[in-house]
User: Which sequence fits this backbone?
C-alpha cells in the first residue's frame, strides 16, 4: 500500500482482504466490524463458503493499515493463519458503511 516512489499515496485507500484460519463461528466478523467502526473506516465483512472471512474497507491510509494489522492478529479467540490483501481503487466511500 504505497505509491510508486515508495512514499504513501495521499487520500483514501480501499483494500479487500481475505482472512484464513479459525475465523468463522467465533465472532471474528462482528469483532472486525467493531474495530473498523472504532477506526472510522467504511466497508463490509462477510463469511465465505470455504471458511474464510472477506473484508473490504476504505478510508484514511493509517486507519486502513491499522485495521489490517488488527485483522492479522485477530481477536484472542480466533486463530488467523493468513491475510491476503488486494488493493482496490477507492470510490469515495459515499454511503459505504461497515456492515456484517
Assistant:
Amino acid at each position: 500500500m504505497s505509491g510508486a516512489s515508495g512514499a504513501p499515496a495521499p487520500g483514501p485507500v480501499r483494500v479487500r482482504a481475505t482472512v484464513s484460519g479459525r475465523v468463522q463461528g467465533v465472532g471474528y466478523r462482528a469483532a472486525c466490524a467493531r474495530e473498523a467502526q472504532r477506526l472510522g473506516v467504511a466497508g463490509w465483512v462477510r463469511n465465505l463458503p470455504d471458511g474464510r472471512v472477506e473484508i473490504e474497507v476504505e478510508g484514511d491510509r493509517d486507519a486502513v493499515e491499522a485495521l489490517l494489522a488488527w485483522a492479522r492478529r485477530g481477536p484472542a479467540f480466533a486463530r488467523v493463519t493468513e491475510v491476503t490483501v488486494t488493493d482496490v481503487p477507492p470510490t469515495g466511500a459515499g454511503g459505504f458503511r461497515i456492515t456484517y
Remarks:
- The two ends are 24 Å apart (CA to CA).
- Residues 12-88 form a domain with the Alpha-Beta Plaits fold (CATH 3.30.70.100).
- The helical segments are 28-39, 61-73.
- The CA atoms of residues 7 and 36 lie 24 Å apart.
